[in-house]
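Minutes, project check-in
Item: structure for the 340-residue chain
Input as provided by the requester:
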Amino acid sequence: MPRIFDVIEWADDTGREIVRRFPEEGSGDFRLGSQLIVRESQVAVFFRDGRALDVFGPGRHTLTTANIPLLINLLGPLFSGRSPFTAEVYFVSTREFVDLKWGTPEPIVVRNPGMGLGVVLLQGHGTFAIQVRDPQLFVNKIVGVQRLYETERIVDYLRSILVSKLADVVGNFNRPVVDLAGFFEELGAAVRARAQDDFGALGLDLKAFYVQSLRPSSKTIEELRAMGLLDVQTYAQLQAADALREAAQQELGGLAAAGVGAGAGFGLAQFFSQLFQGMTARPAAPAAVPEVMTVEEAAAYLKVSPEDVLQLIESGQLKARKIGATYRISRSAIEEFLKG
């Protein structure tokens, strides 16, 4: 037998819940004369068939046909003065929620012409604050459209909006990436202004948005390539640069032991600076590289996988001759490819 609720209320002991569904599962059976208790900084919204209906402010309310007209009208002939009736109630907190956390789950790609790859990957985090401005609209959009009523899922949804706006703001900020750390306040204000309409459409006010950190990503080149941010040629060049860096560090260790580390280190620093700024110089060929290579040998030379080499051949970027079911690639063809 369905349970009939004579008292409808919710007390948030944590102070951290934006909305609470009553009952927590399924729909509730309510009768005329049931007591609805709404605490300070709360609003109760009746909900049925995907729509937010009658709204109650703080106080103790006795349900009558007079104070739930939208619900009664929706039920129409199904109601006919009968009690109990079925609906859901959403208690919405109208207090300000501060110190909500945001972060970038994936790096933000920012164009940075003339340096390195021409892009910089930034990751950041900070806090934001919100307040429900229109409880009925909030329930309609968040519960009725997004089907969200757990606080953490709602906040996750809002974070995705904010990170998207931050990417737009940073991409159009027209300042060098290295200077961004001095403009966190301006960035926060710009994101808040840009996101306000989106939050308003959900019945929310974005009260504050703060950037606490915005720094280059620590993603490896393998992760960048998996994200689709590196083509095969750039990936090969970076692999070669990594190999050269490791070799140089080993060499510096020996030179330092001989008392000549400082001067050698300065020269190598200049070399790596030029390598990463231009990204056009091809890696030096090993001493004994064959004039004609198999796919596997070409992959080892380029420091990529054989599948990458086959992809380059099939796309026409790397010239090769097919002999039977295999390919042969000349060293000159690879060098031509590396020249871009």
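Outcome recorded: The CA atoms of residues 126 and 146 lie 25 Å apart.
No further action items on this chain.
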